[in-house]
């Protein structure tokens, strides 16, 4: 249990080996809540984010860099040199989390394969942030936010009805992936078991697309660009929308509210509880935000009383064989009920 007045993640040691936005922002969220984050930079210029976009007139450092790396400590290491690599190994032997966004295989090429790191420190959570994941046909391709925004369909549904697909004017994909990675990292930390957390830009974007991909797969529906309109298909049975219109509406429906139910206690493992972080998070029997009962039948956007099929369960964590991994999967067309 953390000391009274201490930050929630006080005592959590994080090594930030990432660059630019998604990885460093993941570590920054942990630092904001009290984790001791040590950012590792190359001695020749450091993180390229230091020189990107708007520069602070006081010191010439990028405002992006200051945002993504606040509340961190810094060390410079050239991992091509054996002595510097040995320093990083010592840091990782005592750390709780490693965040990195190297190309798949690069960490292994440095002699820092996850299996070896976990053998030296069995509680280490290794969060790996890439464009397309650690395996698969696109794993070794360079991954950028614009690719994820296009391939997920996000750009295609944004813009005016008679206009071209539109990319966001902010670093949406990187910021979103950072939140996904930070959440997944804390799930792994709370488990008390050292493991690999595999997060990528494309699947993070697919998570916010809602049922758009499923609607195409199951109904043949292609959502058009609606400008500032919002599609609101409040129907109990699949009904094709008018051609080219979708269900545009500028009024958001009320959210479905689910009945109260106590949270389940976290699954126990053979590993010893984490301290101080692992023991500081206790299950709540009745969350304050889970109130009320399901909407009455016949009300706007109420859940269908007799669905045509059980809704698929999209599992966000699927532990697999050695080394243990926390999988952040966003494949609604491959929803399954088993790992």
What does this structure look like?
With 339 residues, the chain is of the alpha/beta class. The chain has helices spanning 22-32, 63-68, 82-93, 106-109, 114-120, 145-151, 154-157, 172-191, 201-207, 212-219, and strands at residues 13-16, 36-41, 72-76, 97-100, 125-130, 195-200, 230-231, 248-249, 325-327. The strands form two sheets. Strands 3-2-1-4-5-6-9 form a seven-stranded parallel sheet. Helix 1 packs across helix 8 (172-191), helix 6 (145-151) crosses helix 9 (201-207) and helix 8 (172-191) packs across helix 9. The longest helix has 20 residues, at 172-191. The two termini are 33 Å apart.
The level of helicity is 25-40%
β-strand percent reads 5-15%
Tally of helical segments: 10
Rg calculated over all Cα atoms: 22 Å
- Major β-sheet annotation: 7 strands, parallel
Given helix and strand content, the structural type is alpha/beta
Look at the structure and give the mean pLDDT.
78
| Biggest sheet strand line-up | 3-2-1-4-5-6-9
Question: What is the number of beta strands?
Answer: 9
Order of helices and strands: EHEHEHEHHEHHHEHHEEE
Give the CA-based shape: globular
Q: Give the N-to-C terminal Cα separation.
A: 33 Å
Uncertain segments? 241-339
Task: Give the structure's gist in a few sentences.
This protein has 339 residues and is an alpha/beta fold. It is 25% helix and 11% strand.
């Amino acid at each position: 249990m953390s000391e009274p007045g201490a930050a929630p993640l006080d005592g959590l040691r994080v090594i930030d080996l990432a660059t630019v936005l998604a990885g460093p922002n993941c570590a920054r969220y942990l630092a904001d809540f009290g984790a001791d984050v040590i950012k590792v930079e190359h001695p020749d210029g450091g993180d390229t984010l230091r020189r990107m976009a708007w520069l602070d007139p006081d010191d010439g450092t990028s405002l992006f860099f200051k945002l993504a790396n606040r509340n961190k400590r810094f060390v410079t290491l050239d991992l091509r040199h054996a002595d510097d690599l040995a320093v990083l190994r010592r840091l990782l032997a005592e750390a709780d989390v490693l965040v990195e966004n190297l190309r798949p295989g690069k960490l292994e090429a440095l002699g820092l394969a996850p299996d070896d790191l976990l053998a030296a420190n069995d509680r280490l959570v290794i969060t790996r942030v890439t464009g397309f994941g650690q395996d698969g046909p696109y794993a070794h391709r360079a991954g950028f936010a614009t690719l994820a925004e296009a391939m997920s369909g996000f750009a295609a549904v944004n813009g005016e009805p008679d206009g071209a697909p539109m990319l966001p004017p902010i670093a949406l994909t990187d910021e979103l992936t950072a939140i996904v990675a930070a959440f997944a990292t804390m799930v792994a930390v709370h488990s008390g078991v050292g493991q690999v957390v595999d997060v990528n830009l494309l699947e993070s974007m697919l998570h916010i697309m809602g049922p758009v991909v499923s609607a195409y797969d199951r109904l043949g529906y292609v959502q058009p660009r609606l400008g500032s309109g919002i599609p609101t298909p409040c129907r109990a049975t699949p009904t094709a929308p008018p051609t080219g219109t979708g269900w545009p509406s500028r009024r958001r429906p009320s959210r479905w509210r689910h009945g109260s139910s106590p949270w389940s206690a976290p699954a126990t493992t053979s590993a010893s509880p984490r301290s101080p972080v692992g023991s500081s998070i206790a299950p709540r029997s009745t969350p304050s935000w889970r109130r009320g009962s399901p909407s009455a039948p016949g009300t706007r956007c109420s859940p269908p009383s007799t669905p045509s099929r059980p809704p698929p369960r999209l599992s966000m964590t699927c532990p697999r064989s050695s080394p243990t991994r926390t999988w952040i999967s966003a494949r609604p067309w491959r929803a399954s009920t088993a790992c």
